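retry 2 of 3: previous attempt timed out while embedding pyridoxal-5'-phosphate. Reduced batch size to 1 and resubmitted. Inputs unchanged:
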Amino acid sequence: MFEGLKALPQDPILSLMLKYQQDDNPAKLDLGIGVYKDELGNTPIMQAVHTAEQQLLQSETTKSYIAPAGSPLYNQRIRELVFGADHPVLRDNRVASAQTPGGCGALRMAAEFIRGCSTSSSVWVSTPTWANHIPLLGGAGLPLKEYPYYDYENKSIQFQAMLDTLEQAVAGDFVLLHGCCHNPSGADLNREQWLAVAELCARKGLIPFVDMAYQGLGSGLDEDAFGVRMLAEKMPEMLIATSCSKNFGLYRERTGTLFIVGANGEQAANAGSQLFSKIRSHYSMPPSHGAAIVETILGDQPLNQMWQTELQGMRQRILGLRESLVRHIAASEIDGDFSFIEQQFGMFSFLGITPQQVELLRTRYSIYMIDSSRMNVAGLNAQRMDYFVAALADVLKSS
Ligand code: PLP
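retry 2 succeeded.
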């Protein structure tokens, strides 16, 4: 049976990570993999997480099964983080949610849920979007369609083209939007644009489906949730997938949430029961440890404060790196305007160089990023800025 199987090519990001690990150049720089890094290039455990884990070690009394939806307290606290504690959809009980194995688990279960609701609904995704959206959603059998999003030429959102294309969507289609810190471009909708998307979805009967994997890493915990909160107020139905991988640094603990907003309490509860049944038939129930950490942090005022301060430090570091990179490039021999990097949010931006130049950065300077030139800004640091900009100047000359 298995002898005819062919080896599949490795995931490009994971194979890049492997090449980086095998590179013995002490000057190497990893701007590829999408994890936050500190000034020393490490991805440390946050102090608030560490403290919560110590508390859990003392207080946990069982490892017995939980439910397909995960911990009720986790669900309650993460809802308040995402929507804000006094959001009308929470007051009106219009939200069903499930703790999931990471944001990926939330996205896949959203796809399974959509498939269960309708076999004819398409999901519209931005061009470009996070590469894993395609297998996560398409793998559940959902038809995917694309709307233009990032204009590589002008380094900004092609907003009119996005709206024009979404006019072709039909009632019951889902529109996947990045809540903040668009991956891979870093180009986020402004408030006016979010409102225009809400108007279009309401007028055409489209259902917003927001992936928010970076809450708190763009402009702030509340600021980054503007789109989600506004849509939840205006729209009868929507889906939201969130992740605690980045903002709590819980990558390998696989902690995320899928929210379903229904038109009223009863519809939300019915939709939730459908979701829980899908979960039961896929992985039965989510892993517990990461969610227990988040639940502990969000439920304890001093720990919550500690976490928010750490998150703010991460956010400010990224903003500072963006500003410093633009300044260093402007002061170098490099021609061209890179100020767009300062106007974008989160960990990623396209540097806007060719795949050949990306390869030269890797082979000559051991600087790693994916071929599209999406770079993880958090992989830079103050000591290496001159090295990076000099390398960039060199490869730009050899186009
Ligand atoms: N959505 C986007 C846009 C992401 O970039 C990521 C991770 O990189 C995720 C979702 C899911 O992350 P995880 O499954 O690690 O929580």
